Amino acid sequence: MTRRREKILLPLIAVFLGFILGSLIVIATGRSPVAMFAAMIKGFSGLDIINDVPWNTRYVGEFIINAMPIILTGLAFAFASRTGLFSIGAEGQLMVGSLAATAVALLVDVPRFIHLPLVLLASILAGALWGAVPGFLKARFNVHEVTVSIMMNYIALHLNNFVILNLLGSQDRVKTAFFPESALLKSPFLQSITRGSRLNWGFIPVILALIIFSFIINKTTFGYSLRAVGYNKDASRYAGMKVNRNIVLSMMIAGAFAGMAGSVITVGTFNFGRAMSAAEGYGFDGIAVALVGGNEASGILFAGMLFGMLKSAQPLMQSQGIPREIAGIIQASIVLFVAMQYGIKMLLERFKKKQAVTADGDRA
Amino acid sequence: MSIKILFEMFPIALMFASPIIIAALGGLFSERSGIVNIALEGIMMVGAFSAATVTVLLEEATPLAPWLGLTAGLVAGIVFSLLHAVASVNMKANQTISGTALNILAGGLTVYLCQIIFRQQRTRAFSNGIQKVTVPLLEKIPVLGKMFFIENYPTFFLAIFLVFFTWVLVYKTPFGLRLRSCGEHPQAAASMGINVAWMRYFGVMASGALAGLAGGIMVLTADIQYTLVSIHGTGFIALASLVFGKWNPFGVLGAGLFFGFSTALSFYAKDITFLASLPGEFFYALPYVLTIVALVVFAGKSVGPKAAGQIYDSGRR
Question: Which of A25, A31, A96, A147 would best serve as a mutation to test chain B binding (most B beta carbons within 10 A)?
């Protein structure tokens, strides 16, 4: 197998195995896998293959809404990954991003063409700042970024709740006041063509982020030196690259992507800030997206749509009597199979060798 | 702060500390064998779900239901952790990714099964979890009796026992030495005839057993049913205790008690004058902040197992 083919084939095998395992669990618990797949198809296309109902574009809108934030958290994980860092901090970076967006949306009073960019910028900066902490600690003290970013996720959760509940004024211990129209990504036009879905302009920053990711990584000297640090730290240092600076910057840019996801959710999907009892899992979805997408912009786009489809199929599955959590089970098993790809590759090669041996045996 | 509040805090603090300590001991076995296990959280969820389910289903049949529930949690933890063992030992998976996958899987799987068994997003509530006990004779010891032996959960004594048991097994037996050698330099261990793969399987399964048990204890002492947020990050606090306690059983005990008290403090802070002005969120976030501080303080000193997290390549020297 060539490297290129391998990079596409192995994640596809993982996705395939994940769906097989999910179907087996559905069958084992006495539910119908056909209904599950029908829900998935309806989840992204709005087409119902079982019942004769007209095409409903609302589902397409909701599907895009579900894919947007996890594409961004996927970019966040992938960016750090390319520098050889394993960041599970997207969850927390997203949360502070969302908090910053909430604060700017509520406290600043300017026209929309200034307000909206300001909201996005605030969330990007907050995410970058949150990402800088594990990056700095890694560069300066060689503290493992995995542990620090897990801890930062929980600190972000409690910080978010503290600020929302005590400083920004919550209505009912959960929500803040509604944001002014000038801070929202809302679009009546997009809503009207998707039969009142929550689709909004958020997809524009998402597309920009995909382009920026790909540009930095593939087309700039900076991106080259980031990747070099990812491949071999010592060699890059020897070649005169600023390894520590690259580590901090890489974590900050990763954090910026995740922070942006925070505002896409807060001023796009919702129009108020929220206190939360637990993280919502966008960060972990992002890890799945980046792994399946092979840490490349194009792969992340497709993987984001795949998992966005699973998410938007959830309520449909639930209404078919299939517990919605099956989507999470399928996603987790896909991640597990992607993690095992080295082993799967070995198995495939062994299998091929065996086939070759038996073929030789037949000839003899 | 009056002394009375301190005494009142003990049973609650020990209730929170027990699952943290036990799950962290699980992490110790796994990391000492060379496998990083960030799936403690997910394993605890599976253990908690199994324990709550078995307790609910058997409580009419037998008064021993909570204890059978704990056993179920332990067994379920072992089975679930096997996924991590297969992925990271046989399939040479990145251990952090595999652990992350288990954490996501646990949330989906447990709530899925709740929906199948109970037709709701959580288990049915059990009427009795684990009951508090008062130890005869020991309760009469001045001060200590009041702190540890009156109206306390027996699971705390189990945690203390497990700390000593782990210490003896890992530091005082040839088996423990072999286990630790696999986490420090697996190639050298293999050259001495130690089966690294088997040792790592043991490490991960022990972590599954202990984290599953811890999850069961947590749900049966601090909760009335299993829900998606029953464990709410305790597995990660256990991971933090392992770092804080420098991968040593007694260090883990100290860190676990510390985090148990800081959790209890968030409930009692309003009664303590100099803490009353601080928001509850401050106390919730405290363990995580302290862990980062501890990591920075320990930075550069080699305290953790050297080979933990690396994929074992028998050909490397």
Answer: A147
In angstroms, rounded to a whole number, what is the distance separating the alpha carbons of residues B54 and B72? Answer: 7
Place of tokens 């594990």: A134
Sequence-distant (6+) residues with CB within 8 A of B19 are B44, B155, B214, B215, B217, B218, B221, B234, B238
| B81, B211 Cβ separation under 8 angstroms | yes
The band of B302, judged by pLDDT with boundaries at 50, 70 and 90, is: low
Q: Do B292 and A162 touch (CB under 8 A)?
A: no
ipTM of the complex: 0.89
Helix (H) or strand (E) holding B97: helix B95-118
B83 touches chain A (CB under 8 A): yes
Side-chain-facing half-sphere of B219: CA atoms under 13 Å: 38
What Rg, from alpha-carbon coordinates, does chain A have? 22
Which letter does DSSP use for residue A265 in this model?
I
Q: Inter-chain contact B111–A325, Cβ cutoff 8 Å?
A: yes
| Assigned architecture for domain B3-298 | Orthogonal Bundle (1.10)
Closest-CA residue of chain A to B295: A143
Q: Are B78 and B84 in contact (CB under 8 A)?
A: no
Q: Which residues of A touch B301 (CB under 8 A)?
A: none
Beta carbons of A344 and B91 less than 8 Å apart: yes
B286 contacts B261 by C-beta, under 8 angstroms: no
**Are A272 and A178 a contacting pair, CB within 8 Å?**
yes
Please report, for chain B, the start and end positions of each structural domain, with discontinuous segments joined by +: 3-298
d(CA A276, CA B21): 27
Helix (H/G/I), strand (E/B), else coil: B152: strand
pLDDT tens for chain A, residues 1 to 364? 577 788 888 899 999 999 999 999 999 998 899 999 999 999 888 888 888 788 888 899 999 999 999 999 999 999 999 998 988 899 999 999 999 999 999 999 999 899 999 999 999 999 999 999 999 999 999 888 888 998 999 999 999 999 998 888 777 778 888 898 888 888 888 888 888 888 889 999 999 999 999 999 999 999 999 899 888 888 888 888 888 999 999 999 999 999 999 999 999 988 888 988 888 889 989 999 999 999 999 999 999 999 999 999 999 999 988 999 999 999 999 999 998 888 888 888 888 888 887 766 665 4
Cβ–Cβ of B289/A162 closer than 8 Å? no
Residue A68 phi, psi dihedral angles, 5° rounding: -55, -55
Calpha distance B27→B18 (Å, rounded): 14
H-run or E-run covering B170: helix B154-171
From chain A, the residues in CB contact with B288 under 8 A are 151-152, 154-155
Between A142, A281, A329, which is nearest B105 by CB?
A329
Question: What residue in A sits closest to B297 (Cα-Cα)?
Answer: A141
Distance CA B80, CA A234 (A): 38
Whole-prediction pTM value? 0.92
Do B93 and A339 make contact, defined as CB atoms within 8 angstroms? Answer: yes
Q: Return the pLDDT at A293.
A: 93
Q: Which H, E and C letters describe A180-218, residue by residue?
A: CHHHCCECHHHHHHCCCCCCECCHHHHHHHHHHHHHHHH
Mean pLDDT of chain B: 89
Q: Minimal Cα distance from A136: which residue of B?
A: B296
Contacts of A95 in chain B (CB under 8 A): none
Minimal CA separation from B66 to chain A, in Å: 26
Contact across the interface for A162 and B299, Cβ inside 8 Å: no
Q: Are A36 and A27 in contact (CB under 8 A)?
A: no
- Tokens of residue A261, six digits: 């996801």
